[in-house]
Write a structure and sequence with these properties.
This protein has 348 residues and is an alpha/beta fold. Helices cover 36% and strands 22% of the residues. Strands 6-7-8-3-9-10-12-11 form an eight-stranded mixed β-sheet, with helices on both faces. A four-stranded antiparallel β-sheet has the order 2-1-4-5.
C-alpha cells in the first residue's frame, strides 16, 4: 500500500499528539455583483496543511502576512469551520461536531489574541472578564469563581486586589497578562497564541514570553504559536512550520530548521534575522526576494514560490512539489530535494 505524504507525516510525528491536522483547507468564495451576486473566484487562504502538535510542546507557524497562519489557528479552535480536511483533538475529529457537541472541547482549547486592548471588553472589570468563561461553563458558585479569578491573576503576575479595575487602567503588558489569565481560567490543555507579543513594547515582550514558558512548564500547556519575529520563535518553539500562500513549505524541529534551513523561502526569512555580533552581521549575505507575494485568488501554477524563488527551475513552474521527509523528520516542499537529488547528495 502506498502512503500519501500527509499520511507519512502523520505517522512520523505520531507520538500521541494532542492536535492532529490532516489536509486542512479554508477557501473563501469571491463574489461579484450587488443584488444578484455570483461567485467569480475562490480565495484559497489555507490549502492542504498537515501537522501534529505533541502534548506539552510548542509548534510555531511563521510566514508573511496573509499566508493563512491566523486562519489556521481559528479553524483548529472551530471559530471558523474548515472547507476540507480534518482536525483531531485527542483523537476526536472536531470538524463534524455540532456546536452542542463542541461545548466540552471549548473548555480545553483557548486563544490569546494579538491586540490585548481590543480583545478586552472596556465596559467590564478584570474580574468579570476572567470570570465570564467560568460562568458560561458553570464552574461553580460565586465564591468559587471569585477565588478562581484571584488565583489566576496571581498566577500571571498581577495583584488580585486589581480585580475591580477596568482594562484601560493597565499597561499593554498587563492587559496581555489579563488576556492570558482569561485563556487559563478553565484550565485548558491547548492554547492558540495569535501573535501575542506583536502589539507590545520590546521591553515587555521578553517578560510575556518568559511567563508563557513558565506557565507551559507548570501547567503542561500545549501551544500553537503564530508569529512574525523569528528570533522569538527560536526561543519558544519545539517545532517550526514555515507557511507561504496557504501551504507549509518546511517543517522541522527548531534546531534543524535554524541551523540547516532547506527551502529557499526559509533561507530568505532567516537571512533577515539580525545577528547580535557586529562582525558576523557585517559578513553575512542577505537573500533579497524580488517581486510581490502573489494573490491567493490566483496563485502561480506549480510551486507557489516559483515567481520569487532565486533557485527556480522549469519543473517548479509546472509541477507542485509535495511536502516530503528528507530525513530526521525534516519536511520540505521543494523540487531541489527530490528523491533522486537527495540520494545523490547522500552518496557524495
Amino acid at each position: 500500500m502506498t502512503l500519501t505524504s500527509s499520511e507519512k507525516l502523520s505517522i512520523s510525528q505520531n507520538r500521541t499528539p494532542l492536535i492532529r491536522v490532516e489536509n486542512l483547507q479554508k477557501h473563501f468564495p469571491v463574489m461579484q455583483g450587488i443584488l444578484l451576486q455570483r461567485q467569480v473566484a475562490t480565495l484559497k487562504a489555507v490549502d492542504g496543511l498537515t501537522f501534529n502538535i505533541q502534548r506539552g510542546e510548542t509548534l510555531s507557524l511563521v510566514g508573511e502576512s496573509g499566508c493563512g497562519k491566523s486562519t489556521t489557528g481559528r479553524m483548529i479552535l472551530q471559530l471558523s469551520r474548515p472547507t476540507g480536511g480534518k482536525i483531531y483533538f485527542e483523537n476526536t475529529d472536531l470538524t463534524h461536531l455540532t456546536e452542542k457537541e463542541l461545548r466540552p472541547f471549548r473548555r480545553k482549547m483557548q486563544m490569546i489574541f494579538q491586540d490585548p486592548y481590543s480583545s478586552l471588553n472596556p465596559r467590564m472589570t478584570v474580574g468579570k472578564i476572567i470570570s465570564e468563561p467560568l460562568i458560561i461553563h458553570q464552574f461553580g458558585n460565586q465564591n468559587i469563581i471569585k477565588n478562581r479569578v484571584k488565583e489566576i491573576l496571581e498566577l500571571v503576575g498581577l495583584n488580585s486586589n486589581l480585580i475591580n479595575r477596568y482594562p484601560h487602567e493597565f499597561s499593554g503588558g498587563q492587559q496581555q497578562r489579563i488576556g492570558i489569565a482569561r485563556a487559563l481560567a478553565m484550565n485548558p490543555d491547548f492554547i492558540v497564541c495569535d501573535e501575542p507579543i506583536a502589539a507590545l513594547d520590546v521591553s515587555i515582550q521578553a517578560q510575556v514570553i518568559n511567563l508563557m514558558q513558565c506557565l507551559q512548564k507548570n501547567l503542561g500547556l500545549t501551544y500553537l504559536f503564530i508569529a512574525h519575529d523569528l528570533s522569538v520563535v527560536r526561543h519558544i518553539s519545539d517545532q517550526v512550520a514555515v507557511m507561504y500562500l496557504g501551504k507549509i513549505v518546511e517543517l522541522a524541529d527548531r534546531i534543524s530548521l535554524y541551523e540547516n534551513p532547506l527551502h529557499p523561502y526559509t533561507q530568505a526569512l532567516l537571512s533577515a534575522v539580525p545577528i547580535p555580533d557586529p562582525e558576523l552581521e557585517a559578513k553575512r549575505q542577505r537573500i533579497l526576494l524580488t517581486g510581490e507575494v502573489p494573490s491567493p485568488i490566483n496563485p502561480p501554477t506549480g510551486c507557489r514560490f516559483c515567481s520569487r524563488c532565486p533557485e527556480v527551475m522549469e519543473q517548479c513552474r509546472l509541477e507542485e512539489p509535495p511536502l516530503k521527509d528528507i530525513g530526521s523528520h525534516h519536511w520540505v516542499a521543494c523540487h531541489l530535494y527530490s528523491s533522486k537529488q537527495v540520494a545523490e547528495q547522500s552518496r557524495v
